[in-house]
Model the fold of this input.
Amino acid sequence: MLDRLNQAMEHIEGRLDEHIDAAELARIALTSEYHLRRLFSALAGMPLSEYIRRRRLTVAGAEVLAGERTLLDIAVRYGYGSAEAFARAFRAMHGIGPGEARRTGAALRAQPLISFRLVVEGSTAMTYRIVEKEEFRVVGKKARVPLVHEGMNPAIVAFVRSIEAETVQRVTQLSDQEPEGLLSVSELVSDSREEGAELDYYHAVVTSAEAPEDLDVRVVAAGTWAVFENTGPFPHALQYLWRDVFTQWFPSNPYASRPGPEILRTQLSPDATEADAQLWIPVERTAV
Done:
């Protein structure tokens, strides 16, 4: 898998001044475009589109300083429709406009070429199982919140606290299948995993029951799920579990993520410092 990802990175590098098709990158990596974007974000810490943008502006920056082409020629070469659009993007990355950078020979920022290599980890076994589920409903209350990588998510905490106890009780009673009980269900609005990316968050249950009109519903199609379990400090162990799934489990198993919500079942210790977690990720089997 890592060899194929590195081939996709080489494909990007050879076409920074051309249109780069994410679907073609996925074909090179022998996976789906959806999974490629999710896996790249987890491994690289930035969205695939952001990496391509930074690489283009890195190479464009070198050409700006070289002074062999006009700024408009450089802008057009790297996909910008006008010198103004190029200048805005250039300043956002380098902290200085291209014209001033050329006049002063300013120091610019660079996005290194990313390559993936094997790091020996995984000394702790991951507990998982594969589950086939029929169509079901996620029923509860929904909010749009930003993604937070470390620590508690203040927006989610405030949202959950705003739900009336009577509503929580009614939602909980609708649970009629695995994963049981009140759940945290999240679904990214885009493929990005960067800090602050928007996601739909449900404080909800999984059920086959019809939902009352005052509750939010997400119908989830039948499919395959990978279910992971761990125990550890709350909330960090949960966040590390998600990270390990994408950086360790997916690269070493014949599965890829597919579109759909991710479901987290959490059971807190009495003092809320530890948690038993069960994470459900929608997956599809890939060719070995």
Notes: The radius of gyration is 22 Å. The chain has a mean pLDDT of 89.
